[in-house]
């Protein structure tokens, strides 16, 4: 009986400690969101000493959001949503087919091809960004949304994630489908894809976050302000002599909240998919 009580007390202490640590990690996020709804003068005036006003504005205002909208940030945000959305849809198709081939279809050089895929996401993108930008310039793809989308379609980490999941699917399912006369495309579409929903969600998040936080690549291939992505637009908000920090806080808060909402929304589907998906030999 005492052991049971001690176990409950221990779990309660650990739960409380985890909640406290989570709140500490959330404090900078709360401060950022609160700063989006107050003037720049109030933001820096209330930063010290540490009081409740740091996390809760004395007077709420939408001036910063209006300033961001007037500066064309909504257009830049729309560009980011479009680029990330197209990359997720098309990139998942490309990654899933590549992962299926590397995991299920036997062909000569499969191990070497997979090694190249792994190497592709071990090499930092910054190391190849400049020569790749020169190639895009030679192809006349600069200052186009296509230039922003194409590099995100072939994501080695997404292919690796899906391949590892496909390897866990019993090969007997593919053999049984083969005996029924199904080809590789039908096996991929009707057998593997319905089972890989959790992996697709995980790979989709990888593709989304890769494009959502892109900064260096858009700077290299885009020079027109109306085609800038949201992170680049925020960087350009800083002036040489003066900066509207309230507007910067508002734009940064919007940029941070959207992926947070996506992650929270997909988390439920991810857990449900993991709990309800599976196969047995």
UniProtKB/TrEMBL annotation:
It comes from Lysobacter korlensis. It is a multi-pass membrane protein. The keyword Iron does not apply. The chain crosses the membrane at residues 12-34, 81-105, 112-133, 145-162, 195-215, 248-266. The keyword Cytoplasm does not apply. Keywords: Cell inner membrane, Cell membrane, Membrane, Transmembrane, Transmembrane helix, Transport. It is found in: Cell inner membrane; Cell membrane. Residues 77-266 form the ABC transmembrane type-1 domain. It comes from the Bacteria. The complex is composed of two ATP-binding proteins (UgpC), two transmembrane proteins (UgpA and UgpE) and a solute-binding protein (UgpB). Belongs to the binding-protein-dependent transport system permease family. InterPro entries: MetI-like, MetI-like_sf. PANTHER family: ABC TRANSPORTER PERMEASE PROTEIN MG189-RELATED-RELATED, SN-GLYCEROL-3-PHOSPHATE TRANSPORT SYSTEM PERMEASE PROTEIN UGPE. This is sn-glycerol-3-phosphate transport system permease protein UgpE. Part of the ABC transporter complex UgpBAEC involved in sn-glycerol-3-phosphate (G3P) import. Probably responsible for the translocation of the substrate across the membrane.
């Amino acid at each position: 009986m005492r052991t049971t009580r001690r176990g409950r007390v221990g779990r309660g202490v650990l739960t409380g400690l985890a909640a406290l640590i989570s709140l500490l990690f959330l404090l900078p996020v709360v401060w950022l969101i609160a700063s989006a709804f107050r003037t720049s003068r109030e933001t820096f005036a209330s930063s010290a000493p540490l009081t409740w006003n740091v996390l809760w504005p004395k007077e709420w205002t939408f001036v910063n959001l209006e300033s961001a909208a007037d500066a064309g940030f909504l257009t830049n945000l729309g560009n980011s949503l479009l680029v990330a959305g197209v990359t997720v849809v098309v990139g998942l198709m490309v990654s899933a087919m590549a992962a299926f081939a590397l995991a299920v279809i036997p062909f000569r050089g499969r191990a070497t091809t997979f090694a190249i895929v792994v190497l592709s996401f071990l090499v930092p993108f910054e190391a190849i960004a400049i020569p790749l930008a020169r190639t895009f310039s030679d192809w006349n793809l600069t200052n186009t949304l296509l230039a922003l989308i194409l590099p995100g379609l072939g994501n080695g980490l997404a292919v690796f994630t899906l391949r590892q999941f496909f390897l866990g699917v019993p090969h007997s399912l593919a053999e049984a489908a083969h005996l029924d006369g199904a080809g590789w495309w039908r096996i991929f579409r009707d057998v593997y894809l319905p089972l890989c929903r959790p992996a697709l969600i995980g790979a989709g998040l990888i593709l989304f976050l890769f494009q959502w936080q892109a900064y260096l690549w858009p700077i290299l291939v885009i020079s027109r302000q109306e085609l800038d992505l949201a992170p680049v637009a925020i960087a350009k908000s800083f002036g040489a002599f003066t900066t509207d920090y309230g507007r910067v806080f508002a734009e940064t808060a919007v940029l941070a909240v959207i992926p947070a909402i996506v992650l929270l929304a997909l988390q439920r589907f991810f857990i449900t998919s993991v709990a309800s998906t599976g196969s047995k030999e």
